[in-house]
Amino acid sequence: MSTIATRGRSQRAQKVGLWIGLSLGALFAGFPALWMLLSSIKPNTEIFQYPPTFLPETFTMDAYAGILSSGEKLRFFANSYTVALAVVALTLFAGIMAGYALSRFQFPFKGLVNTVVISVQAVPPITLLIPYFGLVVWLKLYDTLWALILTYMVATIPYAILMMTGYFNTIPKELDEAVKVDGGSSLRALWQVLVPAARPGIVSVGAYTFMVAWNEFLFALSLTQSRSNRTVPVGIQLLMGEHSFQWSEMMAMSVLGSVPVLVLFLFFQRQFVSGMTAGAVKA
């Protein structure tokens, strides 16, 4: 009996420790976001006061009103949506097609292709900034949204190929072979059978790709010049003037910029986690 009681106390202590650890982790991760939200509804003068206050003494929505009434700032959001959605669509198409080929077919240099795809993932993006800049200028795409779209795809397509190859490997080959027996082509098997079955993997790749394209700052700052082609991360930085900082508008724009990613994860979190797990295990 004493052994059972000791084991029960040990399990309860482990659960308590786990909850304490998770609570501290949630506080550590959530506190900056909460501070950002509360700062967005403070006047700019209150943000600068010392000592700082956690809760706003004066509640105001002027920062949000200033952003939503500014055509230039709304253009930042439109550019980010345009770039992110274009990157998601093109990346998913390329990832699905390439993943299907690597999963279902044998062809020369297949192993080399896999090696190259994995190797590209290991290259730090910042080391490619100057070569990309020269290439974009040579292609006459500098200061265009296409420069951002094509650049982001270089980073997202290898990940999409790896994940989709891994997810297609989890789907029995008998499914697409049954379509071929009925006279269907490989493309018909892909789009009518495999793509619907691979929906969790596609959602996880799409969500990851959207977050990468939406949050990227360095290339968006370097490959665009006119304010009409800036994206949200660069737009937030532009609120830092030479003599003044619009902290309340910066926080408000950060909150509004976080909403699409948050909504995306809340709606597709189950498919996102299962797709990431299946693709990573079988890749």
UniProtKB/TrEMBL annotation:
Location relative to the cell: Cell membrane
Q: Which Pfam families match?
A: BPD_transp_1 (PF00528)
Q: Name one GO biological process term.
A: transmembrane transport
Q: Which Gene Ontology cellular-component terms appear in the entry?
A: plasma membrane
Report which superkingdom the organism of origin falls in: Bacteria
Predominant place of localization: membrane
Q: Where is the ABC transmembrane type-1 domain?
A: 77-268
Stored InterPro entries: BP-dep_ABC_trans_perm (IPR050901), MetI-like (IPR000515), MetI-like_sf (IPR035906)
Which keywords are on file for this protein? Answer: Cell membrane, Membrane, Transmembrane, Transmembrane helix, Transport
Q: Which residues form the signal peptide?
A: none
Where exactly are the transmembrane stretches of this chain? Answer: 16-38, 81-103, 115-139, 145-168, 189-214, 250-268
The topology of this chain with respect to the membrane is: Multi-pass membrane protein
The family line of this record is: Belongs to the binding-protein-dependent transport system permease family.
Q: Which named protein is this?
A: ABC transporter, permease protein
Q: Which organism is it from?
A: Serinibacter arcticus
